[in-house]
Design a protein that fits this description.
Layout lengths: L6 E4 L2 E2 L6 E2 L13 E5 L8 E6 L4 E7 L2 E6 L4 E6 L4 E5 L4 E5 L6 E6 L8 E2 L2 H9 L4
This protein binds thymidine-5'-diphosphate.
């Protein structure tokens, strides 16, 4: 997988004077079966989250509130995507290094994952990630 496999997914949005609504369903807007949902909130200014790669987990990240940057890296190239609307999801396939920073005050990041929480699915050492990419095992 490379950073070219990272895609913005435009989610349905129902604009309404009572408040707007968006949604996501598995195998539809979310291109996998959803095994896990988690969210990141109350991030202090200047903090970074999620500096790791997944062996198997695919994910879609949505900014439910506020804004933050997602940095994706395939070992050769890197790109930054700013999420600041709750009707966009960012699809990240497995095998990419990703981190999140520049969280605005009160931002909330929602993440849909294809795999239940499994510490063994995480690669947290960037040098190990680069080696696995070079060896073609990720
Ligand atoms: P961690 O993976 O370190 O966060 P980050 O994405 O910023 O690297 O997760 C922080 C803690 O939360 C860690 O002790 C494991 C726990 N956790 C779960 O139990 N289930 C989950 O689905 C997630 C994402 C984390």
């Amino acid at each position: 997988m490379t950073i070219d496999d990272v895609k913005i997914i435009e989610l349905p949005k129902f604009l309404d004077v009572r408040g707007n609504l968006s949604f996501a369903e598995q195998f539809s807007q979310i291109p996998f079966e959803i095994q896990r949902v988690y969210w990141i909130y109350d991030v202090p200014g200047g903090e970074e989250r999620g500096g790791h790669a997944f062996r198997e987990n695919e994910e879609v990240i949505v900014s439910l509130s506020g804004a933050f940057d997602v940095i994706v890296d395939d070992g050769k190239n890197r790109k930054t995507v700013t999420l600041n609307r709750s009707y966009f999801g960012l699809y990240i396939p497995k095998g990419l290094w990703r981190s999140m920073d520049n969280f605005s005050t009160n931002s909330v990041a929602l993440e849909f994952g294809s795999v239940k929480y499994d510490q063994g699915d995480y690669i947290r050492d960037y040098r190990e990630f680069i080696k696995m990419k070079k060896d073609g095992i990720l």
